[in-house]
Amino acid sequence: MFDKLDFSNASVLVLGDLMLDKYYFGNVNRISPEAPVPVVKVNREEYTLGGAGNVVNNIINLKAKAYMIGAVGEDSNKSVIKQLLDEKQVKYHLLERDLPTITKIRVVGEHQQIVRIDFEEIKHLEQEEIERVKEYILTLINKVDCLVISDYGKGMVNFELSQFVINQAREKNLPVIVDPKGNDWSKYKGATIITPNLKELSDLLKIEIRNDDKEIETYGQEVREKYNLKYLLVTRSEKGMSLIAENEVHHIRSEAKEVYDVSGAGDTVVATLATAISAGINISDAIKIANTAAGIVVRKIGTAPITLDELKNALKVYRNRKLRHLQDLIVEIAMLREKGKKIVFTNGCFDILHRGHIEYLKKAKELGDVLIVGLNSDDSVKRIKGKDRPINRQEDRAELLASLEFVDYVVIFDEDTPYNLIKEIKPHVLVKGGDYKLEEIVGREFAKKTITLPFIEGYSTTFLIEKMRNR
User: Fold this and answer.
1) d(CA 141, CA 31)
2) Distance CA 178, CA 200 (A)
3) Which pLDDT value is given to residue 302?
4) DSSP-based three-state secondary structure for 340
5) Has 198 been labeled as part of a binding site?
6) What phi-psi label fits residue 63: left (phi over 0), alpha (psi between -120 and 50 degrees) or beta?
7) 211 phi and psi angles, rounded to 5 deg
8) Which of 40, 113, 183, 231 suits a disulfide with 109, CB 3.0-4.6 Å?
């Protein structure tokens, strides 16, 4: 589905704390005679954009357009930042303040970070500076499809500017994504999405929230309502993400196989989410893409950004938009519910698709707006039907079902029953064949209504297989 991602027409404005990251890499062969510390013989230097600049880095690496509003100091590092932005063809407006450019120097010896040296001085913006930033925002807002507030608590994002961005975006029907800092979220009130990690959410509420679905649902909904947010997206390290909307909560599991370094993962999530939304991708698919991007960058060392090729290669999803993984599908369902759509669910092996199946599925679709078909995997069919089944592979069965105009989504499950699938989807209507008694239907407690539909006589996959064998 995402193998042809194209973000070339996407454009994002980032407002936030711009930093310069300097890396000195070298070898360690001795201890200093001056103090018991290693001596690093530097053989390589690297400069890169940090803080809100790392969000910009990720957007550019995804082949989208980025605009940056931030601040630099009156020093030589100002020129380095401008050069990096120019090289990436980022259009920017930077306040030049009588302060050091925020700079973090990391000394790395033998693949181990030995020390970090920070240059920064936090000073609130003067009113004249605030007014200039507002002018910058008004200059750029008509050129973008999405805005990001990247707050690192270094002074660039205050209440007045944050609310100015949110209000201007609301007037133009543009989404605002906030990467928050600190425990005063009043400045973010009314944003479209805020993306705290678990620690940031805990700090906000001044309690320790366990990395547990139920706790995150409870506290996340409280925060979403308090700050009038459309969505709260909590990033949960190895457990993935939790999307909290008005009437729905969905947990998207991490796609990272190994985690080496979570540095910069939040920037990547925000950048990828903003870029995908700017490209017209719906929120459920955008979150799926951002989750995949996060799974890539946590396997890298340091704040290395995502690349478009990496993202395309990692998106292990079906090309047919009707064929969905469960975690992807439940986010989509949340959006459908918001639109008042009635969800119908049924399931089966559908090994050899015949007229009986077609009529059954047609009638199921008539019971609502969206028909989701749960399809038994090959292993599941084999356990239920015997070692000689299925006749057709799960990929082929799924494609055939998806080709039917009255089937909206197909999701493959590996269990013997669709119990867990129904529990996650929670359909308005659960449909089964007429050979089932109502009390025997698995998962009916998760549906608002359960209905059985009669099959057409003379049509059965088992009968067809036997007929072919006896010829």
Assistant:
1) 53
2) 13
3) 58
4) coil
5) yes
6) left
7) -80, 65
8) 40
Measured distance CA(43)–CA(6) in Å, rounded: 38
What is the pLDDT averaged over residues 155-184?
A: 96
Contact 32, 46 (CB under 8 A): no
Q: What is the DSSP string of 408-462?
A: -EEEEE-SSSSHHHHHHH--SEEEEETTS-GGG-TTGGGSSEEEEEPPPTT--HH
DSSP H/E element including 106: strand 103-109
- Sketch out the chain's domains with CATH numbers: 11-18+50-100+122-316 (3.40.1190.20), 331-469 (3.40.50.620)
Contact 26, 42 (CB under 8 A): yes
Q: How far apart are CA 144 and CA 12, in angstroms?
A: 5
Residues shown for the chain: 471
> What is the pLDDT at residue 257?
43
Query: Beta 11-16 vs 65-73: how paired, if at all?
Result: parallel
Dihedral angle computed from the Cα positions of residues 386, 389, 394 and 395, in that order, rounded to the nearest 10 degrees: 160
Tokens of 53: 């600049």
Give the containing element (helix H, strand E) for 242. strand 241-244
Residue of 21, 145, 179, 267 with catalytic role: 267
Query: Measured on CA atoms in the order 282, 287, 293, 297, is the torsion positive or negative?
Result: positive
CA 308/CA 339 separation, integer angstroms = 32
Smallest Cα–Cα separation from 21: which of 201, 263, 225, 262? Answer: 263
pLDDT in tens, 324-341: 878 778 878 887 888 899
Checking if the pLDDT of 432 tops 80, the result is yes
The model's pTM is: 0.68
pLDDT: which is higher, 48 or 352: 48
CA 318 to chain centroid, in Å, comes to 17
pLDDT tens for each residue of 214-263: 999 999 999 999 999 999 999 988 788 899 999 888 888 765 544 444 45
Tokens of 268: 């990547």
Please tell me whether 200 is known to bind a ligand.
Answer: yes
